[in-house]
Amino acid sequence: MPRAPRRPCPVPGCPDTIGVGERYCTEHASRHERVRGTRQQRGYGREHEVERARWAPIVATGTARCVRCGEYIAPDAEWSPDHTDDRTGYLGPAHRRCNLRAAGRAVRWRGNAR
Questions:
Q1: Which pLDDT belongs to residue 88?
Q2: Do 30 and 62 belong to one domain?
């Protein structure tokens, strides 16, 4: 069986390689997570946990629709409770990829508004 392709760690001077789906080598991934902070420090505390628990049984049935793309969320798919762009409330469940795409758009939009 062919080996999965590997590429260099993006940190300048790092000799390690990373596989598909990895962002950094093991050493630099740990450093990245420490700098990033805990989920509570990033704004995902008790309210986020309650919202996730509220939606989890519905998502598990496969009947929940993503608030971003409108497609059903498969019971085994990665998902998250998506919040409004101003982070003042929650919209409902979203595919992880849809949630991250929306966050990326918001960051780029804010960056262009300067």
A1: 86
A2: no
* Of 20 and 113, more confident: 20
- For 48-80, give the DSSP string: HHHHHHHHHHHHHHT--B-TTT-PBPPTTS-EE
Amino acid at residue number 6: R
Shared domain check, 66 and 105: yes
pLDDT value of position 104: 73
Q: Where are the beta strands (DSSP E) in 1-114?
A: 7-8, 17-18, 79-83, 90-95
- 85 and 56, same domain (yes or no): yes
Shared domain for 19 and 60, answered yes or no, is: no
Tokens 């509220």 belong to 54
Domain match, 81 and 54 both = yes
The pLDDT tens digits of the residues spanning 50-80 come to: 999 999 999 999 999 999 999 999 999 999 9
Residue for token pair 């804010």 = 110
Q: Answer yes or no: pTM beyond 0.70.
A: no
> Measuring CA to CA, which residue among 90, 93, 29 is closest to residue 60?
93
